[in-house]
Design brief:
The protein starts with a helix and ends in a 12-residue tail after the last helix. It has a single domain, classed as Rossmann fold (3-Layer(aba) Sandwich), CATH 3.40.50. Helix content is 31%, strand content 29%. The longest helix has 15 residues. It is an alpha/beta fold and 190 residues long.
Length: 190
C-alpha cells in the first residue's frame, strides 16, 4: 500500500484528528492518528494488516504479541494474516503482564505489533516482558510510526506509514501556552 492509500483510509474512517492531544507517552501534539477508527471496519483492518504482514513474512516467529488496548485488534488481524497464534499483554499494577491464561511457549520468538508508535514506550515494555519470560523478539511492526524512523527497538521494525508529527513535553507545548484549545486524551492509558 502507498502512503496515499493508507492516509486515504485514515481520512475515510475519521482516523486523523486535529486539536490538542495528550499522547500515551504523555507528550502533547496537534494531530492524533486514531487507529481505533480504522479497525471499526473489518475491510480496512484486513487490508492494512495484510500489507503489514507481508513486511513480516521473513521473520521467524511462533506468535504475535500486542499491548492492550490499542494493539489487540491489530494483533489479531496480523496474526491471522501470518497464520500464527496471538496473545496480548495488559497492564497490571502499572506494568505489562500476560494475564487471562496467556503464556509464552518455550524458546518462543514473537512479533510485537502496535497500532501507533511515537516514543515506542509500550512496545519496549512488551519486549522487556517477552525477554524477561525467556522469549525473544523477531520484529516489531506498527501501522503508524510517528517518529519517522527515529525509534530503535533493537530488532527489525516495519511500519506501513512513517510520518513525523511534532510532539512536545507538556512544559514546552505551544498549544498549552496559547490556551486556545482544551487538552484531550483519546488514548487508552489513564
Amino acid at each position: 500500500m502507498t502512503n496515499e492509500e493508507i492516509l486515504d483510509v485514515f481520512q475515510k474512517t475519521g482516523g486523523v484528528l486535529k486539536g490538542h492531544f495528550q499522547l500515551t507517552s504523555g507528550r502533547h501534539a496537534d494531530t492524533y492518528m486514531q487507529c481505533a477508527k480504522l479497525f471499526s471496519d473489518a475491510r480496512h483492518s484486513e487490508k492494512l494488516c495484510k500489507a503489514l504482514a507481508e513486511k513480516l513474512k521473513g521473520y521467524p516467529a511462533h506468535l504475535v504479541v500486542s499491548p492492550a488496548v490499542g494493539g489487540i485488534l491489530m494483533g489479531y488481524e496480523v496474526s491471522r494474516q501470518l497464520n500464527l497464534p496471538n496473545i496480548f499483554a495488559e497492564r497490571e499494577n502499572g506494568k505489562f503482564a500476560l494475564r487471562r491464561g496467556f503464556s509464552l511457549p518455550e524458546n518462543c520468538s514473537a512479533i510485537v505489533v502496535e497500532d501507533v508508535v511515537t516514543t515506542g514506550g509500550s512496545v519496549k515494555e512488551v519486549i522487556e516482558l517477552i525477554t524477561g519470560l525467556g522469549g525473544s523478539v523477531a520484529a516489531v511492526a506498527s501501522i503508524v510510526d510517528r517518529s519517522a524512523g527515529k525509534v530503535d527497538f533493537g530488532v527489525p521494525y516495519a511500519a506501513l506509514l512513517s510520518v513525523e508529527i511534532a510532539s512536545y513535553e507538556p512544559g514546552d507545548c505551544p498549544l498549552c501556552r496559547a490556551g486556545e484549545l482544551p487538552l484531550y486524551k483519546p488514548g487508552s492509558r489513564k
